[in-house]
Amino acid sequence: MKDNGTKKEYETVIGLEVHVELSTRTKIFCGCAATFGATPNTLVCPVCLGMPGTLPVLNRRVVELAMAVGLALNCDVTRTTRFDRKNYFYPDNPQNYQISQLYLPICRNGWLGIGEGDDERKIRIHELHAEEDAGKLTHDEEGKETLVDYNRAGIPLIEIVTEPDLKNAGEVISFLEKLRMVIGYLEASDCKLQEGSMRVDVNLSLREVGSEQLGTRTEMKNLNSFRAITRAIDAEAKRQKELLDAGKEILQETRRWDDQKGVSYSMRSKEDAQDYRYFPDPDLPPVVISEEWIQAVREALPEMREERKERFVREYGIPAYDAGVITQSVHLARWFEQTAALGIMPKKVSNWIMGEGLRLLREKEMDPEDVRLSPEHFAALIRMNEENEITNAIAKEVFAKAIDTDLDPESYVKANGLMTMRDDSLLRETVKRVIAENEKSVADYKNGKEKALGYLVGQTMKAVRGQALPAAVTAMLKEELNA
Amino acid sequence: MKILDLTAVELAGRIRRGEIDAMEPLEAVFDRISEREEQLHCYLVLDRDGARARARELQKRRSAGETLGLLAGVPVAVKDNLCTKSMRTTCGSRMLENFIPSYDATAVRNLRNADAIILGKTNLDEFGMGNTTESSYFGMTRNPWNVERSAGGSSGGSAAAVASGECYAAIGTDTGGSVRQPASHCGVVGLKPTYGTVSRNGLIAYCSSMDQAGPVTKDVRDSAALLSVIASSDPKDATSLQRDDLSFPENIPQDVESLRIGIPTDDSGKGLDPEIREAVWSVATALKERGAILEEFDLGITKYVVPAYYTIACGEASSNLERYDGMKYGLRVSAVGLHETYRKTRTAGFGAEVRRRILLGTFALSEGYYDEYYLTAMKVRRLIKDAYDKAFLKYDVLIGPTSPQIAPKLGEAGMDPLASYLADVYTVPANLTGMPAMSLPCAMHSTGLPIGVQLTAALFQEKTLLRVGAAWEQIRGQRHEG
Asked: Residue B231: which CATH number?
């Protein structure tokens, strides 16, 4: 106990359990549509309502999508996979058991790299298994009534379980972004945390630096955004460190993150953990996955990010940096490629996407798949700007309006009279008025202050609502001032 | 010949040919029901109006020149754990007292498609759990041969209805002998097909890996006809099989020349009634006289079958019956809070035997006990399957008793659950292995009750069972001729 009295150094050890809803047309064990936003309990049938006498029949597309994700995560495919029942009493599950996989998950032993080049680190994937989602409970405000919507019951999920290979919130976010990108390329899911199509549970423990021994872990739930995940990880690492520093023990428990308050609460301890009484579901025969089936899924895998990035550099001649940014999302990559294919110079397209595009996505809190501007209208906008039919300022304004609505830029510009001013006399009048109204700046300019000219250009642009070309305005101002 | 003495196949033939109006046998059945049902209690639901309307419809279609199906106008009873659209389906449980399914079980739909008339739903042990039909929440079924005796179970209502003429044929379900044992006790033919032959869609699950519906009939030919009707490959049941060997000739072949018959040595202890043992041997001997080859052999696994069966069946049942929680359908006993509502509902809704099996099964699947009990039982199941596979390399069919005892006196079986479980020793192997098996009436006991003999064949070998069964019927002189 020579360290007595001095605080120990700890490192954070994190493992993730990520649930992802698969975008199949129908549910995992019946023919009901697997879509969102429908009136509660309209996308249901006797099977997904767990009515007496009904039986689950596996949707093979679920196995294929799970396999595709598993292969993209460098996993081994389990040649004979099987479903198990996880028994628990709760009204979100009509049968009071969830059909999941415990003993023979579809995929095991994979990895996903985070970071680039020499900094790349392989995060090991322990397993990937398929299961059914549960219904959605809504509790009324007084806590008197609970309503159940079984539309979600039977939506296919995959659960990806990592090894405890992650060290901090930054790595976790990198991992999740990469995972989302991979799944996006496979079009296996839209992976939206806010909407619950991607759900992340964080297992976190502290380990004394230099030790091999893992500490007691907690599992954090209710993490609905990357920001919440980051804050919860930092808070939990801090909480555990404070407990350890005070000589207290960490309880193995499940905790719920309250993002409003920025704290977590204990949901249940290990002692309260339910016995799920897993056993193989006798209604579902084992699924034998042949080498041919695996090969077929592998061959059907779409072009992934690295290949696409290289191809964009090669085929479109855009810089590697641009290709890297654009291919972060399959949606942006497709937007780029389809727009460039319409005869627009590829570098112009990538500039628009990387500059205004990404800025607007942040500003409007949109995901790349929320972009509505069609390649045709996007191309028209860029062309109009290139041909000076509209100024940069107007182009940006129209782009901002069109990105999530797909308005037609040509008719919008026409209807709102946003074309670049061609009438020199009108512009000259405006320039003269600006000169007349800004005596001080005019004097400054004449006294050699070049900056004053910029101000006057700005005033003129403002007066013509951005519809003049800045170069033309500058030239005309100089002419008038020097006259 | 009285109309109620016709077999299902004979009746359907006459209705198809226009010799009998479909309403005639139906009214005869209703008359018989009026005479006997109050005492026997075969039915939980009886749909007189629906059946009459159906008979009229069939008659109309025949008059219009349509050729009716294989079971044209045959009044058939269905065990009340098979879902029937718009007709109450209770499983003999208070839990589902007022449950009306929104769909027909595939086997029921197949019956309708063959132009059978569904009379109603027959009594059963609650959720099929029992072998006397005494655990039904709605009261026991009595044996038509002796009303102080049990009809057997769990398909007691189906067997008693066929034996008493309250229907021409019935569908039962067999998880551990529930078609064969009541058939044996009531002196009728009960067949459990190869697992997967009849779709389980709409069969309310007790033990999913063993549940299988099968016909309860007056004779072997009816059994073949009903089997060919109810069997189907079903996209709604992932465990259902594609079979194209289930259409049988009108006259089932009866030749047993050179047929290899195995008789397992009885190592079940002192449980077997000597009269039953003698009856079984007399069947075997008679078949030998017809040219079959007879051999006694030791299966070597008999003492493991009952423990393995109950461990697996209760384990699956504990999960299958979780859905009855008072939230969505069926009984709800309201209480404060979710868990108290669950507890009160399930305590009130399930009878003692169902609760016992749920508790046993929950224990067998619990963390820390799963390997010791459930997994061990699954391994034993494999060994039992291996023992039978080995036996069927040498034999075409096995002959033995269906039940070690004749129909017990009512009230006696429930006294000792363990003794009652042990009485399933001859029937559960077919469920553990998936093999087809059939019980045939073979002799009368000195008490005046029927004795059944059980035939077991390898997977998919129903035709062997039917052939041996038809041979025995001919020997016994009870074969109905059309």
From this structure: 3.90.1300.10
